[in-house]
Write a structure and sequence with these properties.
The protein has 178 residues and is mostly helical. Helices cover 61% and strands 0% of the residues.
Amino acid sequence: MNNEIKNSENFIYQKVGKESGFKVSKNYFETIEDNFAIRLFEENINQHPGFETPEGYFDTLEDSLLRKVNIKSKVISLRQKLIQIIPLAAVASVLLFIGINSFQFESTNALSFENITDDAIENWLENNSSSIHTEDIATIVSEAELLDNDFAFTDITDDTIENYLYSSEDATVIQELY
């Protein structure tokens, strides 16, 4: 049946000399709705050009706006602000001082020089020897103690010094002596 219809259409096309009597462009049915909506919108648009501004309007716009707007700026001086803050800071510092001093800081082990062991002093000197200067020692030790030749505060014997010098890897100490 399809074959007969196809043959009859071909016969008609051969006699008429055309493929068909009607032609539709590609994608006609996909775009017809959009084209119709655009034409309808164009017909309904008002053809009036819009608003017109008077001559020189933009030249005088700024002046007219400034006349209409009343600008009042509030300036707060730094001095006035500081005068308000200073009493608050004073009250806060007094309260902090009272609060800290009201606590009873009772310590059973009062820190004194007698409570520090000799080992703790030696360890501190070993760890901080690079930060100790001769001026620091001079402020602690009095001139009378420095003038004493016996250095009563040391217990180093001559044998100990000799053993240190011989066992020391630092040759600069020995070279300084000779």
